[in-house]
Amino acid sequence: MRLILLGPPGAGKGTQAARISAEFMIPSISTGDMFREAIKKQTLLGKQVEQYISRGELVPDELVLGIVAERLAQPDTANGFLLDGFPRTVPQAEAFDRYLAEKGQSLNAVIELAVDPEILVTRLSGRRVCQNCGAVYHIVTKKEKQTGVCDLCQGQLIQREDDYEATVRNRLAVYTRQTLPLIRYYQEAGLLFRVDGTQPISVVYQEIMTGIRERVGQ
Questions:
Q1: Helix (H, G, I), strand (E, B) or coil at 178
Q2: pLDDT in tens, 116-151
Q3: Is 88 an annotated catalytic residue?
């Protein structure tokens, strides 16, 4: 099973990716994971990627695709994979299609988790994280017992800079600008289906499973 999962920050991709991965016994792989692994192993491509990241620059498409190919060559992808965070652009998607075609493979489905931006702003800007143990809380949906104090370790709760409202809105705008052409690309290929990510986790998961099975004829 070869899948791609698209969705803005805060849409719940991590939760659903873990479930899909377990269902089909395939690894859930994010761009960040691939970069970190290649850099940690100090592969030739990993060293090149590290140079760009350390300078705060975008990693060129050909390097990104090389890292993806390096990761997908590992034994745990024998049954397929679920990619999160790749591809990010239409040229990356086109290059990845060519890569798969050379291996006699193709994508089975592309899942888009759709959530209204205002809901995402509320989700993300209301998040608080323990400075000590990393436990996550929310000012509306998961309040701590004592204001500003972690229930687990009594550490101080903070709002990460990434979760400031202005930052969240910018992240969502960047995502929409980058991803809209990609969504059209996969729609035209007949691979993409959309799931409402505001529904309960179990409902979202069931709709994802239904969409995948419709496309692979199971």
A1: helix
A2: 999 999 999 999 999 999 999 999 989 999 999 999
A3: yes
